[in-house]
From TrEMBL:
It catalyses: D-arabinose 5-phosphate + phosphoenolpyruvate + H2O = 3-deoxy-alpha-D-manno-2-octulosonate-8-phosphate + phosphate. Its main location: cytoplasm. Residues 8-257 form the DAHP synthetase I/KDSA domain. The gene is kdsA_2. Keywords: Cytoplasm, Transferase. This is 3-deoxy-8-phosphooctulonate synthase.
Length: 262
């Protein structure tokens, strides 16, 4: 898969989870309007299933096939590449029928069989760096995909565990991972999670999204990842971390200006 030529970073954005078709199309349409104006290559993201939940009663999805069909419709309606995360070997081929990029969750980035299964689909494989992993260790995850016959590998920084309930981003990791020849993406929302809360619901600091994003652009990240929703407080997943959709245009406008200044 080849993204359009642009002087800007590319953007992976969408809701945390596919909640329904209307919402997915609404978000994709708004983000595409903004990114077209700013000349930012755009990839729509939505999880068809949420497998890593804090509690058993947390929202996990609307049904795999239903959500994957929505992802396909978003891609076809707006002529966009799409991505979703996978969690088990058998999901790779299934999801690859509907999306362009397979995302490997951070907590599964060392799962060899999952990386191999994703690689064998021939799709782009975007590996999120584990919260427990050094940037330099990601070269081994990358190599597993390459050794499986697929050189289309991206890497995503999403923070490192800091104590029990917080994450920090070490921006030295971005050029480190870029040195292995893969595009590197900064996850501006999950990097601000506050996991392992006593309530069983992950917290977050969305007010810091702009700060994290600016820093990523300043060090030359290839792409940005963020989750957005018209009403984050009503979202069924990651409500504490998402950027309100009506704040996205202002943020991206600032980031494009920063990119141009650099």
């Amino acid at each position: 898969m080849t993204l359009p030529e642009s002087p800007n970073f590319f953007l992976i954005a969408g809701p945390c989870a596919i909640e329904d078709e209307t919402l997915a199309l609404r978000i994709a349409e708004r983000v595409k309007t903004i990114t077209d104006r700013l000349n930012i290559p755009y990839i729509f993201k939505g999880s068809y299933r949420k497998a890593n939940r804090s509690r058993i009663d947390s929202f996990s999805g609307i049904g795999d096939e239903k959500a994957l069909r929505i992802l396909r419709k978003v891609g076809e309606t707006f002529d966009l590449p799409t991505t979703t995360d996978i969690h088990a070997d058998e999901e790779a081929a299934m999801a690859a029928e509907y999306v362009d990029i397979l995302q490997i969750p951070a907590f599964l980035c060392r799962q060899t069989s999952l990386l191999v299964a994703a690689a064998k689909t021939g799709k782009v494989v975007n590996i999120k760096k584990g919260q427990f992993l050094s940037p330099s260790a990601m070269q081994h995850a990358q190599q597993k995909v390459i050794d499986s016959g697929n050189d289309q590998v991206w890497m995503t920084e999403r923070g490192a565990t800091f104590g029990y309930t917080d994450l920090v981003v070490d921006f030295r990791g971005i050029p480190t991972m870029q040195s292995y020849g893969a595009p590197v993406i900064l996850d501006c929302t999950h990097s601000l999670q506050q996991p392992n809360q006593s309530s069983g619901v992950t917290g977050g600091r969305p007010a810091m999204i702009e700060t994290i994003a600016k820093a990523g652009v300043a060090v030359g990240v290839d792409g940005l990842f963020l989750e957005t929703h018209p009403k984050p407080s009503e979202a069924k997943s990651d409500a504490a971390n998402m950027l309100p959709l009506d704040q996205l245009e202002d943020l991206l406008t600032k980031l494009v200006r920063l990119r141009a200044a650099l």
